[in-house]
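Collaborator request, handled under Task 6.
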Amino acid sequence: MREYLSALMPLLRGEAVDYRGATLSVTGQVTVPGATPPPVLLSALGPVMLRIAGELADGTVTVWTGARAVAEHIVPRITEAARAAGRPAPRVVASAMVAITNDPEKVRRRIAEQFGFAGDFAGYRAMLDRQGMSGIHETVIAGSERTVEAEIARYAAAGATDLLVSPVGDEEEQSRTFAFLGHAAF
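Structure tokens returned to the collaborator:
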């Protein structure tokens, strides 16, 4: 990833690149008059990837990560890496499954059935263990409007710069979630 970003980032800025790494070689330049380089965000949860994201990219996108892990693990590591590299504070895009529902446990059971296997992958398991969680279903934000609003506020307080919401639940719960989030002022 470090080699890839070492070549990609200058190319996106329109700079000439002559890069030779252990696994990647790049020579060239891409110029698009008037184009602005897009932000590059890495899906980074572990210390090494967070360091690379802070040093070379514009930030990270997390998955199955609660607000506490964002505050205690993600933000400090990526922010320190960016600071040490002389870069601006990185974006931290926290993704969360959200449901406005009267039955939060039903929603979490469904997520466990559909996606629970992902909690066995080493990177996700490490993040779940760091959070003291048994499975990804425990990262779901589910409950009343008040509960959801409070949990979303925790992400902001934790240092997340953006929240990427995936409404979950049955059709009615997803509709309620869309309606609430579309009118909420966070």
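The cover message to the collaborator said: "DSSP finds seven helices and seven strands in the chain. The helical segments are 2-12, 47-56, 67-84, 104-115, 122-131, 145-158, 171-183. Please let us know whether this matches your experimental observations."
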